[in-house]
């Protein structure tokens, strides 16, 4: 049952178990929510139910902080064909993105960070004002990259890329500083830069660096002086180092890490969003290539598969702060609503389940700079998700979502 947004109530939630985001599990807890906040966490026996409370019995359920996907793109695309962006009208893609937002929320992901794209800027606003249902969105708006960089859509003539305005192309520190100012003017919650080639860009190599340290520094300075973070698409180790030396806060992908880049992440407290579930996506698309996917893309995917789990494991072992992000943007295998793929794949490749749950909650919230979500505690915003079963022993239970609360509103109850 999907419930509409009604007036805030006082709720007493009675799950079997609670994961608080900080590594602890509580048995037979009672979580009390008033308005948009968690006001008490106690035991079933000692909870003051009160006359005005709605009691929600969540039998067999583990309650968790609302989950976070730190890397998506609201594109409204439905195929792997790069031409879709040019032939499907923007209006239609926006409507699809609204559907994607709802799917994400109903799957227990109450916060999503959009790492590049313009739709998320308005979608964020539409959700916040109650026009459409969806998760909390942090949006970067147009990403910043060099001419010929990862987000300079190579298969289009340059003048079309500039005209479409899907990215802010810049070369040299002052141009990059101006691009950052434009992104902030557009309403960016954080800034996205591209410091390496990528899988989805035809004419570059994921291992080759892009932008210079000076260019990234100019962007980071503009973001940090207004309290905003910088995320970098960085797949090769050189690109990762440029990003970190330039002052970014999160490294996205990091497929080809070396010891030095891992050490730098650790030393500077930079978060790592490995988008590891793409290993499985890449494998499946190689086995059975979906219509429209270009040859060059398949070839690049094949080159990355071997290194992605190795880099992930090395960073995990070294103690780098890791957050979950899927890089899903709409087509099959990368569809909204399947965000639990990331913590599940992380466990498959050697992460402890409690660490994977932390990567989807507390760590991800911290990496995004959000201090009021990601853990279940008194005073925190009441973003909560209930899954049937015990994700500590079976991480796959993250797919069995039976209860979702966002900011104190019940949005799903099965
Ligand atoms: Zn991405």
Describe the structure.
It is a single chain. Strands 1, 2, 3, 4, 5, 15, 16 and 17 form an eight-stranded mixed β-sheet that branches. This protein has a four-stranded parallel β-sheet with strand order 11-12-13-14. The chain is built from 14 helices and 17 strands. The protein is globular, with a radius of gyration of 21 Å. It folds into two domains: 10-65 and 374-413, Urease, subunit C, domain 1 (Roll); 67-368, Metal-dependent hydrolases (TIM Barrel, Alpha-Beta Barrel), CATH 3.20.20. It is of the alpha/beta class. Helix 13 (353-360) packs parallel to helix 14 (362-368). The mean pLDDT is 94. It has helices at residues 84-87, 90-106, 119-128, 158-164, 173-186, 213-224, 237-246, 259-267, 278-287, 295-305, 307-318, 341-348, 353-360, 362-368, and strands spanning 10-19, 25-27, 29-34, 37-43, 53-65, 67-72, 109-114, 136-139, 144-145, 168-169, 190-194, 229-236, 250-256, 271-273, 384-388, 401-406, 409-413. Zinc ion binds at residues 71, 73, 115, 327.
Structural class: alpha/beta
Number of strands: 17
CATH superfamily of the largest domain: Metal-dependent hydrolases
Helical percentage:
25-40%
How much of the polypeptide forms β-strand, as a percent range? 15-25%
- Distance, first to last CA: 6 Å
Please state the second-level CATH architecture of the largest domain.
Alpha-Beta Barrel
Overall pLDDT, averaged?
94
Ligand kinds: zinc ion
Q: What is the count of helical runs?
A: 14
Biggest sheet descriptor: 8 strands, mixed
How many domains, as an integer? 2
CATH topology of the largest domain: TIM Barrel
State the shape. globular
Low-confidence segments, given as residue ranges, are none
Top CATH class of the largest domain: Alpha Beta
Q: What value does the Rg take, in angstroms?
A: 21 Å
């Amino acid at each position: 049952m999907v419930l509409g947004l009604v007036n805030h109530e006082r709720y007493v939630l009675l799950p079997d178990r609670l994961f608080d985001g900080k590594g602890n599990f509580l048995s037979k807890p009672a979580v009390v929510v008033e308005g948009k906040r968690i006001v008490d966490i106690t035991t079933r026996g000692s909870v003051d139910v009160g006359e005005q409370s709605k009691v929600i019995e969540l039998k067999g359920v583990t309650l968790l902080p609302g989950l976070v996907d730190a890397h998506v793109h609201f594109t409204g695309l439905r195929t792997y064909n790069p031409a879709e962006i040019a032939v499907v009208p923007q209006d239609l893609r926006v409507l699809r993105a609204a559907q994607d937002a709802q799917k994400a929320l109903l799957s227990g992901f109450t916060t999503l960070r959009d790492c590049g794209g313009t739709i998320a800027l308005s979608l964020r606003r539409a959700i916040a004002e109650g026009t459409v249902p969806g998760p909390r969105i942090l949006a970067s708006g147009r990403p910043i990259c060099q001419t010929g960089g990862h987000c300079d859509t190579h298969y289009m003539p340059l003048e079309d890329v500039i005209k479409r305005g899907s990215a802010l192309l810049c070369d040299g520190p002052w141009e990059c500083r101006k691009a950052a100012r434009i992104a902030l003017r557009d309403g960016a919650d954080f800034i996205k830069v591209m410091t390496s080639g990528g899988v989805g860009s035809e004419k570059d190599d994921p291992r080759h660096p892009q932008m210079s340290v000076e260019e990234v520094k100019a962007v980071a300075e503009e973001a940090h002086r207004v309290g905003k973070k910088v995320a970098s698409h960085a797949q090769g180790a050189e690109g990762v180092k440029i990003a970190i030396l330039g002052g970014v806060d999160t490294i996205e992908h990091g497929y080809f890490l070396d010891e030095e880049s891992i050490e730098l992440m650790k030393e500077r407290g930079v978060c790592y969003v490995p988008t590891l579930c793409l290993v499985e996506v890449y494998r499946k698309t190689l086995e059975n290539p979906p219509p429209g996917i270009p040859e060059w893309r398949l070839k690049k995917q094949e080159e990355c598969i071997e290194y992605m789990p190795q880099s992930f494991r090395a960073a995990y072992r070294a103690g780098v702060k890791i957050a979950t992000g899927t890089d899903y943007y709409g087509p099959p295998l990368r569809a909204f609503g399947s965000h639990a793929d990331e913590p599940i794949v992380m466990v498959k490749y050697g992460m402890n389940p409690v660490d994977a749950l932390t990567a989807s909650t507390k760590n991800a919230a911290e990496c995004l700079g959000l201090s009021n979500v990601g853990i279940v505690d008194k005073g925190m915003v009441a973003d909560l998700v209930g899954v049937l079963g015990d994700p500590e022993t079976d991480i796959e239970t993250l797919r069995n979502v039976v209860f979702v609360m966002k900011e104190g509103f019940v949005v799903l109850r099965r």
